[in-house]
Design goal:
- This protein has helices spanning about 20-30, 40-55, 70-85, 105-115, 125-140, 165-170, 190-195, 210-225, 270-280, 300, 310-315, 340-345, and strands at about 15, 35, 90, 120-125, 180-185, 200-205, 230-235, 245-250, 285-295, 320-325, 350-355.
- By secondary structure, the protein is an alpha/beta fold.
- A seven-stranded mixed beta sheet has the order 7-6-5-8-9-11-10, with helices on both faces. The chain has a four-stranded mixed beta sheet with strand order 1-2-3-4.
- Strand 5, helix 7 and strand 6 (about 200-205) form a beta-alpha-beta unit.
- The chain is built from twelve helices and eleven strands.
- It is globular, with a radius of gyration of 23 Å.
- Keywords: Methyltransferase, S-adenosyl-L-methionine, Transferase.
- It holds the Pfam family MTS.
- InterPro entries: DNA_methylase_N6_adenine_CS (IPR002052), N5-glutamine_MTase (IPR050320), SAM-dependent_MTases_sf (IPR029063), Small_mtfrase_dom (IPR007848).
- This is Methyltransferase small domain-containing protein.
């Protein structure tokens, strides 16, 4: 479901337009004020970019390898930055009508992101920009080499832009005679779609998010894969007595607190989801079945987890590693030297860990 807009009740609201300088606007938002933009829409976007640049200049640059303390400082800065930038507001009417010069049509993008609107309200320009960008990506789709059609991603669902791990799913040798697979935390449905495209005859894809379930269903219909994939809204595993020959999971990679719903696909406080998955997975596995766990080592590189954490955690929960397939990232952030995590991202490795139960670990349901 769309995420409703948070109510905004500013204590100090300053109307500004095209004649307001970025320096003055930056001074006001740092003093706690909200700004109501009434000028040209595209000039408002330029002002937002100028405020972002001024905010970024305030961040202390990290020298040398980033560590856990520096990472948490960076996360705090990002949260404070979002709070500052969200103080530049626009006023929209019912159905997201926007009375600004050169304003785009907001209705489709904002209804997809935030739901229908029947009254006048204030909304951060930054959130509008994010909704428009997400809507454009939803309509365009993300090209996946292993699939005949792009994957289309709704607002609030994590986009499969990290294609390197998908190539691991596409090329890794399947367990012998795989008849049923689970895709845990399916999101856009991309992993389940790749498994179906590879010929796995029965797949159950789960997710806790209703948006993800709707998004995956749309993608499976577009790819004509509904016959092979069943969607279940569930926390981790489908209801008993289902058992699988292959269970695939691409869990959140970073053990830190998410600050928005979509960040739950990336951040897993205290490795809670990862621990629960590994502690329960053998109960849902057929004899001779395999678990495929897709994980980046970024958390180890920034010292949020100790080295060799995955083999340790697997052993703790009655599993052992039989194979590890590695790939280097190809996304834009891994090449951006201005990214605060660049030093770690440049050395990042994404792995597909193949796990099987240790002797006697598989439980009967």
């Amino acid at each position: 479901m769309p995420t409703p807009l948070p109510p905004i009740t500013p204590k100090h609201l300053y109307p500004i337009a095209d004649d307001c300088t970025a320096d003055k606007a930056y001074q006001w938002i740092n003093q706690g004020a909200h700004l109501l933009w009434s000028g040209d829409y595209h000039n408002g976007i330029q002002l937002l970019s100028a405020l972002k640049r001024r905010t970024d200049k305030k961040r202390k640059q990290q020298s040398g390898p980033i560590n856990a303390e520096a990472f948490h400082r960076y996360r705090m800065f990002q949260s404070q930055k979002a709070s500052l930038l969200n103080r530049l507001l626009i006023k929209v009417g019912p159905e997201y009508a926007l009375d600004l010069k050169r304003a785009p049509d907001l209705r489709g993008a904002c209804e997809a992101a935030f739901g229908e609107l029947s009254n006048e309200t204030l909304i951060p320009l930054r959130m509008v920009q994010g909704a428009l960008s997400a809507y454009a990506w939803q309509n365009k789709g993300v090209h996946i080499p292993a699939l005949p059609e792009p994957i289309h991603v709704r607002y609030g669902v994590f986009s499969p832009v990290r294609g390197e791990y998908l190539n691991l799913i596409q090329t890794a040798k399947l367990p012998a005679n795989t008849q049923c697979a689970f895709d845990i935390g399916t999101g856009s449905g991309v992993i389940a779609a790749i498994l179906a495209q590879r010929g796995v005859p029965e797949i159950i894809a789960t997710d806790t998010s209703e948006d993800a379930i709707l998004c995956a269903a749309e993608n499976f219909a577009r790819l004509k894969l509904q016959h092979a994939i069943r969607l279940v809204q569930a926390d981790l595993f489908p209801p008993q007595p289902a058992l699988a020959d292959l269970i695939v999971c691409n869990p959140p990679w970073i053990p830190a607190r998410p600050t928005s719903p979509i960040e739950a696909a990336v951040y897993d406080p205290g490795n809670e989801m990862l621990e629960r998955f590994l502690s329960q997975v053998t109960q849902h596995l057929n004899p001779n079945g395999q678990v495929w766990l897709v994980m980046s080592n970024l958390a180890e590189l920034i010292q949020l987890r100790p080295p060799n954490f995955i083999p340790y955690l697997a052993e703790k929960h009655g599993l052992r590693v039989i194979e590890r397939l590695d790939t280097k990232p190809g996304h834009a952030k891994s090449k951006n030297t201005n990214d605060p995590l660049y030093e770690a991202r440049a050395r990042e490795v994404t792995s597909l860990w193949k796990l099987i139960p240790s002797a006697g670990a598989t439980a009967k349901l």
